[in-house]
Amino acid sequence: MSHSDKRVFLTGASGFIASHILADLIELGYQTTASVRSETKAQEILNLHPEWKGKVTFVFVKDIATPGAFDDVFKQEKNGFDYIIHTASPVNFNVTDFQKDLIDPAIQGYVANSIPHAGGPQVKRLVLLGSAVSVLDSFQDVSVAGADYTEKDWNPVTAASAIESKNAVLGYNASKKLAEKAAWKFLEDNKPAFDLTVMNPDIIIGPMLQPVHGSKNVNETNNFAVYNFLNGTYKQIKGLTFPFYHFVDVRNVSRAHILSLSNPAASNQRILLISDLITPQLIINNIRKHFPELKERIIEGNPSQILPDNVKPTGWNTKKSYDVFGKEWAYIDLETSVVDTVQDLLRLEKEWHTLEVHQEQIGGAH
C-alpha cells in the first residue's frame, strides 16, 4: 500500500530509532522530509543507505532547542506536512548540567511550538517519541513490585529533585516527563488543528540502521544493555543492575509510530510500548546460548538467577497497544531481539577492525 500522497516530517533522522522510522516511511512510500544536524550527517546516512537517495529530502536543524528551530522547515514546505514524527531528544547519561543538557533541550525542542505560525493547518497529527520513564515511579522501591503501570500513571520526578540528586538517570527521567507534559499542555492551551499521539517505550534494543563510527558510538541503550557484555565492560554479575527492567525492540517502536500516523484510535493517546523483562542475566544467558564462540568474552553470571538481588520490578499493562494497533500487532521477544542485536554488533566490529587496519596501513605508508 503506497502513501505517496501523504507528506511526513521526521525529526532527528540520524538517531537509532528514527533511522528505523525513516526506513519504514520510505518503504511505505510516504513523501518524507527528515531533519538532521548537518549536511555531513545526511551524506553519512545516504552513504550507508544509497537506496534511499531520491526518496527522502533532508533539512538541517543544528540545535532543536533554539526557539523556532523548525520554522524554516515549515516555510520551505509549500504544500505543508500531513504528519510530524518528533524523535529528536537527548539520550545521554554522561552529563553534568541536567537542566541545560537534558531538561531544556527536551522541552524546548518540542516541535509543536513551530507549527501554529509556520506549520499550517493541514498538519493532522504529531506523533511524539516519549518514554516509559514518564510513566514509572522513579522513587518506587525496586525490591517490591507494585501494581502494573498504565498510561494513566505519571512519574512524580521533578526537575528540582533530579538536579538535587545529581543522578543522571533521574535527570533523564525528568527531561522526558516534562517534555511530554509540555506537549499535552500545548494542546490544551492552543487547541491546534492537529492531535497528538505519544509513544512511551522502555529500554530499546535492536539492530542499528544509523551510521555508527566505532565502538564508542553505539547508541546508549544498545551499549549498556548488550554491547557492554561483548566488549568486557561488565566484569562480574555481582552488583550489576540496569536502570530499568523492561524492554521493547526498536522495530516495534518504529512500527508503532508508522501505525499511529493515520489511525483514529491513536488520537490523543499515550501508548506504552513494552515487550518483556530484560535483566543482565537474561542478556548473558541469551548470548551464551546462541553465540557459543563468544563464551570467552561473556561473563557467565548465575544462569538460574534471572533478577539481580533485591529486584522485583513493577510490570506494565500493554493492553492499549494491542487495542490501538489491532490484530497485526505483536511484540518481538527478548531472545530474538538480543540475537539480532548481537549479530549486528559483531558485523560492525568487523567493519571497525577493517577500518582500523586500513588506517594503520595508511599511517605506516607515511
UniProtKB/TrEMBL annotation:
Q: Write one Gene Ontology MF term.
A: oxidoreductase activity, acting on the CH-OH group of donors, NAD or NADP as acceptor
Q: Which SUPFAM superfamilies match?
A: NAD(P)-binding Rossmann-fold domains
Does the record carry Oxidoreductase as a key word? yes
The highest taxon in the source lineage is Eukaryota
What keywords are assigned to this protein?
Oxidoreductase
Entry's family note: Belongs to the NAD(P)-dependent epimerase/dehydratase family. Dihydroflavonol-4-reductase subfamily.
Indicate what this protein is called per its UniProt record: NAD-dependent epimerase/dehydratase domain-containing protein
Q: Which organism is it from?
A: Cudoniella acicularis
